[in-house]
């Protein structure tokens, strides 16, 4: 049986750093702590990353690729209520995977220029994606809202989707997040504006979520 190749040290550093940042907060984890957790010398870690910001920036690059892929709305068709429900689940899972960026964002914004500029772009991209989704639903006749209401919906969807898991963490610091509850809360924002089958489907999905909890 062919042996799997060992993971490269650089990849292991990033995996370990992500886990420690998520568990203890990025400001509380030093490169020495990361090296000690991996049982490698600080010099070995320094060979791959000269400082902690380089680790943070590399992790942010991975996060940015994943989030950008999610925020690309497929052209040629309007997303259904089920599509949006699934999209939000995937979005929350990605945010949870890189949750330290959200929990520690105020600290990171004050000292990391890459995070500052790129996180702003991601927030703008989230809002544009939400706007396109709602405009598509309005164009297809399943959502009844004025342009102003659609703009407000897009902003509110972005705010709740972005910071829901931080809210969950504040409520239960030692518990796992209820991603379904976050999706339910975001979808509920559009409920008053949905019509016909789209409204019925949302009510069905919501009822299934409530029944499980």
Can you describe this structure?
The protein has 213 residues and is mainly α. The chain has two domains: 1-50, Orthogonal Bundle (Arc Repressor Mutant, subunit A), CATH 1.10.10; 57-212, Orthogonal Bundle (Tetracycline Repressor, domain 2). The chain has helices at 9-24, 31-38, 42-48, 52-70, 81-97, 100-103, 105-111, 113-139, 147-171, 179-190, 196-212. Helix 2 packs across helix 3, helix 4 (52-70) runs parallel beside helix 8 and helix 9 (147-171) runs antiparallel to helix 10 (179-190). Residues 1-5 have low confidence and may be disordered.
Unreliable spans are: 1-5
Order of helices and strands: HHHHHHHHHHH
CATH class of the largest domain: Mainly Alpha
Question: What name goes with the CATH superfamily of the largest domain?
Answer: Tetracycline Repressor, domain 2
What is the approximate shape? elongated
CATH topology of the largest domain, which one?
Tetracycline Repressor, domain 2
From the 3D coordinates, which CATH architecture of the largest domain would you assign?
A: Orthogonal Bundle
Q: How many separate domains?
A: 2
* Total helical elements: 11
Mean pLDDT, all residues: 88
Q: Structural class of the helices, strands and pairings?
A: mainly alpha
